[in-house]
Specification:
The N terminus is likely disordered. The chain is α/β, with parallel strands linked by helices and 357 residues long. Strands 3, 5, 6, 9, 10, 17 and 18 form a seven-stranded mixed β-sheet that branches. The chain has a six-stranded parallel β-sheet with strand order 13-12-11-14-15-16, sandwiched between helices. A three-stranded antiparallel β-sheet has the order 2-1-4, covered by helices on one side. The protein has two domains: 190 residues, Medium-chain alcohol dehydrogenases, catalytic domain (Quinone Oxidoreductase, Chain A, domain 1, Alpha-Beta Complex), CATH 3.90.180; 136 residues, Rossmann fold (3-Layer(aba) Sandwich), CATH 3.40.50. The two termini are 36 Å apart. The radius of gyration is 21 Å and the shape is globular. Helices cover 27% and strands 26% of the residues. It binds zinc ion (2 copies). The site of one zinc ion has 8 residues, from helix 3.
Amino acid sequence: MSFFDEFGGERNFNLVGKDDAMKAAQYQGSQRVRVIEKSLRSLGDGEILLNVDVCGICGTDVHIVEGTSRSSPPVILGHEYAGVVADAGHGTSFAVGDRVGVDPNIACGVCFYCRRGLVHLCTALKALGVDIDGGMAESSIVPVSQLYRLPAGFPPEQSAFIEPVSCAIHGIDLARIRTGDTVAILGGGTIGLLMLQLARASGAARIIVSEPLPRKRLLARTLGADLALDPGTDDVAAAVRDTTEVGADVVIECVGTPRTAELALGLARRGGTVEFFGVCPMGMTIPMEPNAVYARELTIVGSYVNPHTYGRAISVLEAGLVQVDSFQIKSFPLDSVEEALACQREGRATKSIVRPQ
Ligand SMILES: [Zn+2]
Ligand SMILES: [Zn+2]
């Protein structure tokens, strides 16, 4: 018996105090985002309806709108979100009123990679807010497999950071920082500042951050960077060499430009690790000398999304291992989504968040 048979056909789920249409920020192609009215479809088996409380905006949203990602319009944006369960559907362990965070990356469960436990490499991976409708909206329908219950008292603003923290944790796992290491981080935006704190928590003794904006350099210093360099005026490679004599043990590229990707390769010591975390637009290339990678025995590693790290991200934030209170967070109503995206793109806020309710 299906869910719908049991309840006598399809149901339309009304939100408290609203009709069955909701407002949502839809990417429509040609660099255009519009706030539209969209009616809610019925819940399927294993789905819940969420009233979205907070949705973060990141570089991925900017890439989507600029047309340089895999996302194809029309799609409702928003992959960093949390909210309150408005309808729990049948057979789920969630109840109306539960506060939950959403892991946006949905793996198929049956492909070669899923069956090897490499869910983030799933050949049919779909992400809420990228491939299918996400949470930059008053409401969102989410498969129950993607939900994590939030601890009591978990601050709403912090819930916009769970997804980026979960991705950063995967990056830190792959970077294999050892106690006492020197870590160089290129980029002092949200991801760079999260990496800085996670690197410290992982035992890094010395952390060097390179970031062009003075405000973010100051924030990096406040959050524990030993050295915050300005790539516009400082010779980053020389400064890393002077500080370490040999180069950094681990270099984490968190910008996603060919220039910083190339710089990252030059900052690592012999036998060091260079991680590409920042998202370079597809098709961009950099010159690389294979002999230098060979002779210096570099490990070059990519880090993609957040396999099995969402729950750990909640724990890290709850324990205060990562502080986001000092980040410059700018909050926008849903109707101002274009301004929120511009603010993120131009670096006027460390983090733009949308509060749809
Ligand atoms: Zn993101
Ligand atoms: Zn799969």
